[in-house]
Amino acid sequence: MFKIVNLTAKVDNRLILDNFNLQINDGEIHVIMGHNGVGKSTLCKIIMNDRNYEVLNGQVIFNGVNLHELPTYEIARQGIMLISQNPISIEGVTNAEVLRTALREMTNEKINIFDFNKKMEDICDQLKLSKDFIHKDINVGASGGERKKIELLHMGILEPKLLLLDELDSGLDVDAMRDVANFINEYHNKTKCSILIITHHPNIINYIKPNFIHVLDQGHIIKTGDAHLAEEIENHGFFGVNAMSEEGQDE
Ligand SMILES: Nc1ncnc2c1ncn2[C@@H]1O[C@H](COP(=O)(O)OP(=O)(O)OP(=O)(O)O)[C@@H](O)[C@H]1O
Ligand SMILES: [Mg+2]
Predict the structure, then answer these.
(1) pTM (2 decimals)?
(2) 198 C-alpha to center of ligand 2: Å?
(3) Domains of the chain with CATH codes
(4) Ligand 1 atom nearest 167 alpha carbon
(5) In sequence order, what are the residues at sequence separation of 6 or more whose Cβ sits closer than 8 angstroms to the Cβ of residue 64?
(6) In sequence order, which residues have a C-beta less than 8 Å from that of residue 247 and are 6 or more positions away?
(7) 113 — alpha (psi -120 to 50), left (phi > 0) or beta?
């Protein structure tokens, strides 16, 4: 189980998260929506313990472990993976090299190269990603959509228990969106992993069915609902949804 309790955090001396709470039970899919600059990516980076963000209060707990006490590589070892909004390129290390090393570190077992290569090639086929990327430096020379697929290649090999998808849908064309969603749905059905999706577009919710949708505003979740909430946001905007939730509180 993944739990964020009373998280308050600052960046660049500005309060971004203010008493933020969220619980994701095993196997659940949650969505967070909210306007630009509200703190969605910040939340993901704090979960991964990015030291640019200052946590003033609260806890991030995964299966009983307080993540804030761990370095990022240890958080990844616990089974949490962030697919960031803008995956960076890393020169000098190929996808195959980094994945083989990471897998060996995680499992403490010798990797069967034949099985490993076959699995990477199968994932590339599923994602309709050129197999050339397997032996290229991470994200170097890759388009925006290809970068997202390369990150999912990493996901398929490293098999996280909690997947954080920060605007996975940005940069994906309609066909790529469907291929990527099929890949994630299949992985979710197989592993019963938990997923946190951050998005601006209800479209991804048509492909990957969430249990809950949350609206983030003023540092915390101001409204939670089912898939219909995405439609409400589409029709009324965040301002409208915010006003409706304030009316509800007044009653
Ligand atoms: N490393 C940083 N240094 C300074 N300010 C930052 C940093 N990271 C984020 N911020 C600021 O914190 C606020 C929240 O940023 P964040 O990236 O979390 O927004 P977001 O909700 O993900 O927005 P978007 O929908 O545009 O991706 C913004 O005002 C941003 O400028
Ligand atoms: Mg963001």
Answers:
(1) 0.94
(2) 8
(3) 1-78+211-251 (3.40.50.300), 92-193 (3.40.50.300)
(4) 27
(5) none
(6) none
(7) alpha
CA of 40 to the centre of ligand 2 (A): 5
Nearest CA to ligand 1 atom 13: 37
Residue of 36, 13, 4, 11 lying closest to 237 (CA atoms):
36
Alpha-carbon gap, residue 95 to 21, rounded angstroms? 35
d(CA 197, CA 166): 6
Q: Which tens digits make up the pLDDT trace of 11-21?
A: 999 999 999 99
Under 8 Å CB-to-CB from 214, ≥6 apart: which residues? Answer: 22, 30, 31, 32, 33, 221, 223, 224
- Return the ∠ at Cα 43 (arms to 73 and 164), rounded to 5°: 60
Only one residue has tokens 């197989």, namely 190
Residues with CB under 5 A from ligand 2 (ion): 40-41, 85
Which pLDDT band holds residue 28 (cuts at 50, 70, 90)? very high
63: phi then psi, degrees, rounded to nearest 5 = 50, 45
Report residues whose beta carbon is within 6 angstroms of any ligand 1 atom.
Answer: 11-12, 16, 34, 36-42, 52, 85
Cα separation of 50 and 45, whole Å?
5
Q: Tell me which H or E stretch contains 125.
A: helix 113-127
* Residue 88 neighbours by CB under 8 Å, 6+ apart: 139
Give the gyration radius of the chain's Cα atoms.
Answer: 18
65-93 pLDDT, tens digit per residue, is: 999 889 999 999 999 999 988 899 999 99
